[in-house]
Amino acid sequence: MMAHEPVHVAGHLGLGDQIYMRPFIRRIQEKRQVFVETSFPQLWWDMPNIKCVKADGGLRTQAKNIRRVDFCDWHGEPRGINTMRISYAHDHTNKRCGIIASLSQQFQQPCDNFEWRVKPEWMTEAADFVKSLEGRNGRKIGIVRPPTYREEWPCPSRNSDPRVIPHIAQSTKDEIMWVAIGDIDPRFERIDGDEGYWEAAALKGELHVGALAALLLLADIVLASPCFVLPMSCAVGARAFFVFGGYVHPRFVIDPRMGLEKIEWIEPSPFCNCVTNQHDCEKSYRPEKALAKFNEFRRRFRD
Ligand SMILES: [Zn+2]
Hints:
The chain is of the alpha/beta class. 31% of the residues lie in helices and 17% in strands. It folds into two domains: 7-107, no CATH class; 120-299, 3-Layer(aba) Sandwich (Rossmann fold).
């Protein structure tokens, strides 16, 4: 590749996957123009040398973001320039290394800035959403992303034990008003485990990814299973707690280079390293133990 010629990056298209790629692409675009295959142009607004190439063939939520986003600067697939094809699936499933290490190796770049800046107008949208919530009564806002089962990409093995997130939410409701977020189309996806442990919800994709990122940042605490919320929380600097299930061990998706000051997690021990999307993993930890760790984490941030 010539020193400063543009490059085309074709990587994973999931929201979480794209957040993981940002620090590496940030480095590359400091030297050359980068055409990125994406369904989320919101992710690239803070990098001047990026051209978004509309990724078709994506999953439902990706296609939906393309339709709704107010973005008209799409570029066609560039011709005559090199394409970097990025995939960490192989490294990941063979347990050789985590996502950050794999991407760093493939891009040949360090991960030295994981931050994704939230646009002021997204903060306004998120603040308006919070203001619209009824029955808060002075409580803190907690954002929960309930674990789900997606028909398009089923991966229940990595979801948390279905008792744990509801237990944490129910036990803290005097102090925290829990608001569930997600983008669930009941034809393709359902919540894995109990429902109704939240008092308000935006579960039909009411918030676009920028407003969602701002909402995580505005909230007092975020609670989820491993999913896009994990890299998103690290990138925007939200305070967040993650409950792991099986299959995806924290060491594959959490790396100190992401900035971990404001996140905490718990995983079952022993951990099921089955590497199977649909294994019925043993996820044995007591909900009380997860709650104690969650409360201890929150105490760290008390004024
Ligand atoms: Zn398993």
